[in-house]
Each structure stands twice: as structure tokens, then as C-alpha cells.
Design a protein that fits this description.
The complex is a heterodimer of chains A (470) and B (295). Chain A is α+β, with helices and mostly antiparallel strands. Chain A folds into four domains: 11-134, Orthogonal Bundle (Arc Repressor Mutant, subunit A), CATH 1.10.10; 154-300, no CATH class; 314-408, no CATH class; 416-469, Alpha-Beta Plaits. Chain A is built from 22 helices and 16 strands. Chain A has a four-stranded antiparallel β-sheet, covered by helices on one side. Chain A has a three-stranded antiparallel β-sheet with strand order 2-4-3. A three-stranded antiparallel β-sheet of chain A has the order 7-9-8, sandwiched between helices. In chain A, β3 and β4 (98-102) form a beta hairpin. Chain A is globular. Chain B has eight helices and eleven strands. Chain B has helices at residues 27-30, 39-56, 88-107, 120-135, 159-171, 187-196, 209-217, 286-289; strands at 2-5, 17-24, 61-67, 72-77, 143-150, 176-180, 200-201, 239-240, 247-248, 252-253, 260-261. Chain B has a six-stranded mixed β-sheet, sandwiched between helices. Chain B has a two-stranded antiparallel ribbon with strand order 8-9. Chain B has a two-stranded antiparallel sheet with strand order 10-11. The N and C termini of chain B lie far apart (80 Å). The chains are: A alpha+beta (470), B alpha/beta (295). Chains A and B meet through β1, α3, α4, α7 and α11 of A and β1, α2, α3 and α7 of B.
Chain lengths: 470, 295
């Protein structure tokens, strides 16, 4: 039986699964409150805002009056999510009336954000406590530009992030191909590779089915997968996962491309940021005296749910109706990915040319990649020139890919049992009826009195035939 | 064997909004002593509301347009990168002050009697222009809506311009929400919200303005399908005549261009059609009445 594993869709699912104690502690950080609020379903956000300045518990009945009849299911989802994240506390009083109250730490933090969020200048900076709470917009001040020199432009930074990430991926799937090594320890890499690669004795590691699927996901989904492994593994490295989550969330509120002083980090954060630099989330730079880190787009997108389409990169693949693929890319990783399901014919400095063939697709299907995944990869990475066209991948190609896949699924195997040499037609017919009743009938031949039933109902059949004999 | 089930939201999250806030800065309205709410208090409510809108979604966008007595102007745009997030309030207040001073200089030339109306038609058009630009920016744009925070009485002389703006908003499916903070209901805004499917509300307790704003006007277009929002009670559909800008119950309408007049005219001032006698006369003259314009 295939083991189905649902990936926590984003950060918030992971946050929601934290124990109550840790969750309450997380809410002391204003950024986490903000990130949590933004991750909620629209209706839930609305409720939080509406209840922000209500200090008494709100009866469940009056909340139900806020929605129209059609919206009741959405209302339920919103309330459940709020309770799951411990933003709302459910109180049942003596009269068995349910009331809801906002988590007070959460409430105070958001109130402060709304009131002071904009007017930092009016707050006395000498008061440390106030800074802690009220710097609601930026977690830390960027460094002045006269100290930091050689700051990369936004394009350079994005190129850096992509390069770093692809290097990591290449390292992940085949450590021999990567030109540079990452400073992740090999045990850390093993953790990341778990589930993606399988290694038999003395053989080179092979990508597993889920490893192939991983490569076809978009960057944000891949990043999230790695970060999730990184967080779940953190306890083993002696790092508190709640601390790590709150640091990652905080990081996502920094401004892309600004430099932040590394002195502001705690020891644990300084260690973590080195790992994050390897993933391309931040760029580390060293000045004459100070050192600083610059968050990239990958970091600031972390707290947004996976599929924020605005963060999607430009595509590079053109598929023609004659099944040829032109990929305008210099990346080795892209080449490796295309090789998963197509035959690479030749490679120019900035162009990879290949063809989708029946053989290459059969290899892909054998490795557990589905036609839908290939098609969606081609569509998501379509070159801007063809992306405007509908469909961006020619219909005959997508149809053929699906057909070739269904070719492989033409035969369905079911364990079964064959019965023949029935003593009489009556017994045969009774047996047929019995099998039909149990939904286990696969095939019957009434002339020669032969019958095939599913293996599942073997026991019942045996019982039945025995009773028929008597 | 491991199977991954990654659930994708295929489109951009459906509660991303572009909120155009039109703030009434008419000094004649704010200086009236019977206001329950001072301008500074009003601003603090509005700033908190803008803050909370930006808090709800990182892709949310807020644009503030000041509706003055003689002019109107953009005073804040959250999408412009030039403003650091922690200087927003400063910038907004500074721009607003500059605007009010400029607006005052313009008004010295003519003297107004009583509370004049502010230039709602101008700021509505500016908001719609901005929205059109957003629409053309690409397939993934936030869902726009307009919120009028209005206190000054209606200016009948703006009737045609405002109605045109309303119909253009209706065509581009942009709801106009109105929050009336003045003493009287606004017939223009009632019609605007009614026609465009927005919400019209005249808060009873003005010192709790933020709660009204957060409860009613912070609702994104997606959630409006599921929430109970204030329903229009009665809408004043009366029109203003084109000749004297009076609000009238009954009047004359040009059969060619539908212009409205309070008195019978010989010729339509808008399209130039020549009218016959008024309807009270004998029906024999009706043929003359349909005469088409020469142009």
C-alpha cells in the first residue's frame, strides 16, 4: 500500500502543530502575530480585526449572526483555524453558552501594531521595552549605506539566490556534479536526502519517486520542503524548534536587498544564518570592521504560502508541436531536470535542445513521475514568448504524453481465484450470484461453468461452497 | 513508497485588495462647531484603519486621495517604494498639510457662503484613473474598491460629473463604499454605493469610527459574499437639473440626450436639440418636439 504523506502546506501548519505552551510563547513576538494573521483565511482575518478592540468574550451565537446562510461553512473553517492556532480561546460558561475571546498577548501586539505601526518617530527610543514592542514594521534597522559598501543590486541578489539554491539542489541529487561544496555537514545532507534518494549497497544513490517529484516542484515548494526538514531536525542539533521558527518568520519581514548588521543576531541565529546562506536565503558580506547579511527574495517569501504566483520566476522552456524542447538556460540543474523525461540532444552555451520521446517518457513513468507533473512543469516554466499563448504547451504534445502514460496503465492486476468443475449448473449459478452480491465477481463463463472471483472474498466463497455441498 | 500531495492555490489569494480612500478635507466642513469628531481624531481613526488594512495581507495596497474644496490630490500610495514603512505616517501627514495649504490658496479668489461642497467628482475620477492603470498592469492585480469618507454636503453642480464617475465605476465593477461622517445623508453617495454594489453607512457613534471601519469597510470583496453587511435603507434617487443645479423631484428631460431641466427650455443646452411646446399644450405639436438636431 502506498503511504500517503501530506506535506504541511506552509509554515503556519507547522506552527499550528506546536504544543500550546510554545505557541503562547511565540505570540510574544509581534512579527509572528503579524505573520499568523496574514496566513489566516480571509474571513478569520476579518474576525480578528473586528474583535481586536472588544475586551469581553463574544458569544458564539452573535458571531454566527455576522455571516449569511451561505457562508456558514466558511465561518466554521475560520473559527476552527483560529482555535487551532490558539488565537481564539473557546470558553463554555455555566449556561452552556459558548463564547470566544482573543488571545490577550496576540491582541495587545496587534493593537500596538495598528496604533504605533506607522509612527515610530513619536515613540521614545530610550525606553527599551517600547522598542521591543513597537518596532512593529521592521525587526531591525538596516545599516546605513556609508558603512556597507559593494551592496549587490536586486538583480544580482536574485541571481545569487538562484545560483546558491541550484547549487544546493545539484549537491542534493548528485554530490559529484556540484562544482562547489556546501558547508552543510554530510549528516545534515543525509537528512535532506532522506526520502528523496535511496542508496543500495555499493551503488550510486538513486533518486526515488518522491525525489523526482521534488525536482519538478516550484522553488517555493522545494524550499519549504527543505526548511521543514531543517526545522524538524533542529531538536536533534540541540536547537529549539520554536526559536528557529520565530527567527525564520522574523527574517521574512526584513526588506530584500538591505544590509543588516550581524551583531544584532544571537549566537544561535548566527549559526542558523550560515546554513540559510547556503540555501540562498541570505547573502553574507564582510566589511572592514562589521559583517552583515542581506536577505534575498527567497527569505522574504518564506512566510507567504507556497504558491504565491508573484514570486514565480521567468520560464525558459519552449515546446514545439514536433515534440522538441528548447530550454534557454545555462543551469546544470535545468538540464538534469529535463533529462528526467526527455532526450537531451545537444547543448549550446545558453540553450539546451532535447526531444520528448516515447522511450524517455517511459523511463520517467518508470521512475514514478506522472504525466500531469511533466505537463505542469512544462507549463509553469514556459518561456515568456510562449507563456502568453493558450495553451502554452501544444495540445498534441500534452495529449500524447497523457496517452503514453495511459498505455502503461492498460492492464490492471487483481489477485483472483479460478473455480471450475462445478458439480451442477445450480451450484454454479448460485456461486455466481453469491460472488456478485459480494462485489467480487470478475469473470464467468456459463458454458464451461468457470468462474473467477477476487481474492478478497475467498473465505466467504469457501464457506458458501461448503454450505452448498451439504 | 511515498506520495506527495502538495495542494496548490492556483490563483493569487482571493482577498488581496487595493483600497482607494477618499478623505474629505473640506475646511468649511471640519470647522463647523457641531462636529462630533475633530479632524485630528478622525485622522487617527483613519490611520489605524489604513494600518490594519496593510496588516491583513502583505500584498494589500492603500492609496489615499485628499478631497479638498478646490482641488484633490494623491497624498499617500503604499506601493511606492520611496517611503520607508516606518515613515508612512509622517509622509502622509506632511503631504496632507501641503495639500491643505495649496487648496486654501486656491480658494482665496472666490468667497464661499456656508459649508461648500468638496470636489468629490474630481477625487472619484482620480481614483478610477488609478484603478484603470492597475487593471492594465497585468493579469494579476489586487481587487480594487473605493471608500469615500465624506462629510461635506452634496454639491449639485457636480451632479453630472459624479454620475459619470459612478457609471464608469459600475462598468469596471469597482464598488464604491461610502462612510458619511457629516450631519446629513448624502444622496450622491447613496446612489454611488447602490449602483456599484458598495456599502453605504452613516455611523451613529462617530467616536467609535475605527470599529465601524474595521467591521464594515475592511471587508474584502471575497468575504462580502459571506458576511452580513449594512443594507441600503432608502436611497435618494433625486437628480439635479442641468440648468440651475437644483435637486428636483420632477422636471423635463431631453428626449435625445436625457439631460434634466427644472424648467421648460426652447433648446437643449447639452446637445442642442430644439424642443417644441411643453407637454401641457395640445398634442398636435408633438411632431415638432421630436425634431432632431441639425448637427
Amino acid at each position: 500500500m502506498p503511504q500517503v504523506k501530506i506535506i504541511a502546506k506552509n509554515f503556519m501548519d507547522m506552527v499550528a502543530s506546536l504544543p500550546a505552551m510554545k505557541l503562547d510563547k511565540l505570540y510574544e513576538n509581534a512579527f509572528i502575530c503579524e505573520a499568523i494573521l496574514r496566513s489566516l483565511p480571509p474571513l478569520a482575518k476579518k474576525y480578528v480585526l473586528q474583535m481586536l478592540y472588544i475586551d469581553v468574550p463574544v458569544p458564539a451565537k452573535s458571531m454566527e449572526e455576522w455571516v449569511v446562510a451561505d457562508g456558514f461553512s466558511k465561518h466554521k473553517v475560520a473559527i476552527d483555524r483560529l482555535i487551532q492556532l490558539r488565537v481564539l480561546t473557546e470558553i463554555v460558561d455555566r449556561k452552556k453558552e459558548t463564547t470566544y475571546k482573543l488571545n490577550s498577548t496576540f491582541q495587545i501586539n496587534l493593537q500596538k501594531h495598528i496604533v504605533y505601526g506607522w509612527c515610530l518617530t513619536q515613540i521614545d527610543y530610550r525606553d527599551d521595552l517600547l522598542i521591543g514592542y513597537c518596532s512593529g514594521v521592521l525587526p531591525r534597522e538596516p545599516m546605513p549605506s556609508n558603512i556597507t559598501v559593494r551592496l549587490p543590486s536586486l538583480e544580482d541578489l536574485e541571481a545569487y539566490a538562484t545560483e546558491q539554491w541550484e547549487c544546493f539542489l545539484l549537491h542534493l541529487i548528485s554530490s559529484t556534479q556540484a562544482e562547489r561544496t556546501t558547508n552543510f555537514s554530510s549528516s545534515m545532507m543525509k537528512v535532506f536526502q532522506r526520502g528523496l534518494l535511496s542508496q543500495r549497497d555499493k551503488e550510486a544513490p538513486r533518486l526515488t519517486e518522491s525525489g523526482f517529484q521534488f525536482l519538478l516542484m516550484d522553488t517555493n515548494a522545494q524550499l519549504w520542503y527543505i526548511i521543514r526538514e531543517y526545522i524538524t531536525n533542529s531538536e536533534e542539533r540541540g536547537v529549539d524548534s520554536a526559536n528557529l521558527i520565530s527567527f525564520l518568520l522574523e527574517l521574512s519581514f526584513h526588506v530584500t536587498g538591505e544590509a543588516y548588521n550581524s551583531n544584532t543576531l544571537t549566537d544561535f541565529q548566527r549559526n542558523a544564518i550560515k546554513d540559510l546562506a547556503d540555501l540562498g536565503l541570505v547573502k553574507l558580506q564582510q566589511g572592514r570592521k562589521e559583517s552583515w547579511f542581506i536577505p534575498t527574495k527567497l527569505a522574504t517569501n518564506l512566510s507567504i504560502s507556497l504558491s504565491d504566483s508573484s514570486s514565480r520566476k521567468q520560464g525558459f522552456v519552449v515546446v514545439e508541436t514536433n515534440f522538441r524542447i528548447y530550454a534557454y538556460s545555462t543551469s546544470k540543474l535545468h538540464c538534469e531536470i529535463l533529462r528526467l523525461f526527455s532526450r537531451i540532444e545537444y547543448q549550446l552555451p545558453n540553450l539546451i535542445v532535447g526531444a520528448i520521446t516515447k522511450e524517455s517518457l517511459y523511463d520517467a513513468f518508470e521512475n514514478g513521475i506522472t504525466a500531469e507533473q511533466i505537463i505542469s512543469f512544462l507549463q509553469q516554466n514556459a518561456h515568456p514568448r510562449v507563456a502568453e499563448r493558450i495553451p502554452s504547451v501544444p495540445e498534441n504534445v500534452t495529449d500524447q504524453i497523457r496517452l503514453w502514460e495511459s498505455d502503461l496503465n492498460r492492464i490492471e492486476m487483481t489477485p483472483a481465484h479460478l473455480y471450475d468443475e462445478f458439480p451442477s449448473r445450480d451450484v454454479f449459478e448460485a456461486a455466481c450470484d453469491f460472488a456478485r452480491e459480494y462485489g467480487g465477481m470478475l469473470w464467468d463463463d456459463s458454458k464451461q461453468m468457470r468462474l473467477v472471483v477476487k481474492a478478497d472474498i475467498l473465505m466467504q466463497m469457501r464457506e458458501f461452497l461448503r454450505s452448498q455441498k451439504q | 513508497m511515498l506520495l506527495f500531495l502538495v495542494i496548490f492555490d492556483s490563483v493569487i489569494a482571493d482577498d488581496v485588495s487595493l483600497l482607494m480612500v477618499l478623505v474629505d478635507t473640506n475646511p468649511f466642513f471640519w470647522s463647523t462647531t457641531n462636529n462630533a469628531l475633530s479632524f485630528s481624531k478622525f485622522l487617527s481613526h483613519v490611520l489605524a484603519f489604513l494600518n490594519s488594512t496593510l496588516l491583513l495581507n502583505q500584498l494589500n495596497q492603500v492609496v489615499v486621495i485628499a478631497t479638498g474644496f478646490n482641488s484633490c490630490d494623491y497624498v499617500y500610495d503604499s506601493s511606492s517604494n520611496s517611503v520607508a514603512p516606518n515613515q508612512r505616517t509622517e509622509r502622509l501627514l506632511q503631504k496632507l498639510e501641503e495639500f491643505v495649504i495649496k487648496d486654501e490658496q486656491l480658494s482665496k479668489e472666490e468667497s464661499a457662503d456656508g459649508i461648500g461642497s468638496s470636489l468629490l467628482s474630481g477625487s472619484l475620477s482620480m481614483a478610477l484613473c488609478y484603478i484603470q492603470r492597475v487593471f492594465r498592469s497585468g493579469p494579476l492585480h489586487p481587487q480594487p474598491r473605493i471608500l469615500c469618507l465624506h462629510g461635506s454636503p452634496d454639491g449639485p453642480q457636480q451632479y453630472v460629473a459624479i454620475m459619470n464617475a459612478i457609471f464608469s465605476a459600475q462598468r469596471s465593477m469597482v464598488p464604491i463604499d461610502s462612510c458619511v461622517i457629516g450631519a446629513q445623508h448624502s444622496a450622491f453617495l447613496q446612489q454611488a454605493s447602490y449602483i456599484t454594489g458598495g456599502v453605504y453607512l452613516k455611523p451613529q457613534q462617530l467616536d467609535g469610527l475605527f470599529q465601524y471601519l474595521a467591521t464594515v469597510f475592511a471587508t474584502d470583496l471575497h468575504s462580502r459574499n459571506f458576511l452580513q453587511l449594512p443594507k441600503p435603507v432608502g436611497v435618494d434617487f433625486r437628480a439635479s437639473c442641468f440648468c440651475h443645479k437644483n435637486t428636483i423631484d420632477m422636471g423635463y428631460i431631453c428626449s435625445v440626450c436625457l439631460s434634466i431641466f427644472c424648467k421648460h427650455h426652447k433648446k437643449c443646452s447639452t446637445c442642442g436639440s430644439v424642443f417644441g411646446q411643453a407637454q401641457t399644450n395640445a398634442p398636435s405639436t408633438s411632431k415638432q418636439k421630436r425634431k432632431s438636431p441639425d448637427t
